Amino acid sequence: MAISRYKNFRHVKAPGNPGELIRKRLETFPSIPASELEDRSDIIVRLRDSQRLDRIANDYLGDGRYWWAICLLNDISLPFGNQVLPGTLLRIPVSINRILNKIQQRINKI
Q1: Alpha-carbon distance 104 to 96, whole Å?
Q2: d(C-alpha 29, C-alpha 107), whole Å
Q3: Contact at 8 Å (CB) between 85 and 59?
Q4: 56: closest CA among 10, 81, 91?
Q5: What angle do CA 54, 57, 63 make, to 5 degrees?
Q6: Which one, 25, 26, 72, 77, has the greatest CB density within 10 A?
Q7: What is the CA radius of gyration of the chain?
Q8: pLDDT tens per residue across span 51-74
Q9: Domain extents for the chain?
Q10: What backbone phi and psi angles, to 5 degrees, belong to 38?
Q11: What is the pLDDT of residues 88-98, one digit of tens each?
Q12: What is residue 24's predicted lDDT score, i.e. its pLDDT?
């Protein structure tokens, strides 16, 4: 039997309503609600047809490997499915360091 690439996904609880499970997210680092990551300096872009998150990450963050930060900031749990369609508004961090620092702070609390 094939191993699912989603086997390491965990349920993320809704902020303010701990009993409600809202979605699944890959647990490569602690779950952080998008609301904790937002900043006024974030850039808002509208996804165009055939755009990919890795290319957007490369254009705005300097490295396509930061596509996951865009997913975190926009509560996108399955970026390669139908959840991210052309016309979707995406919040892009001005700097990846803010996201990395938040993740490190959360890890340090554990």
Answers
A1: 12
A2: 7
A3: no
A4: 91
A5: 90
A6: 72
A7: 14
A8: 889 999 999 999 999 998 998 898
A9: 32-109
A10: -65, 150
A11: 999 999 989 98
A12: 53
Cα–Cα–Cα angle for 90, 109, 13, nearest 5°? 50
Residue with the two structure tokens 């508004």: 89
Look at the block and give the residue holding tokens 């509560």. Answer: 75
Q: Alpha helix locations (H) across the chain? A: 34-37, 53-61, 67-73, 96-109
Amino acid (one-letter) located at 107: I
Full-model pTM: 0.69
**C-alpha pair distances (Å), 69 with each of 20, 24, 91, 105:** 24, 16, 10, 16
What phi and psi, each to the nearest 5 degrees, are found at residue 23?
A: -170, 180
Contact assessment for residue 33 and residue 16, using Cβ atoms and an 8 Å cutoff: no
* The token pair that represents 107 in the structure block: 């890890």
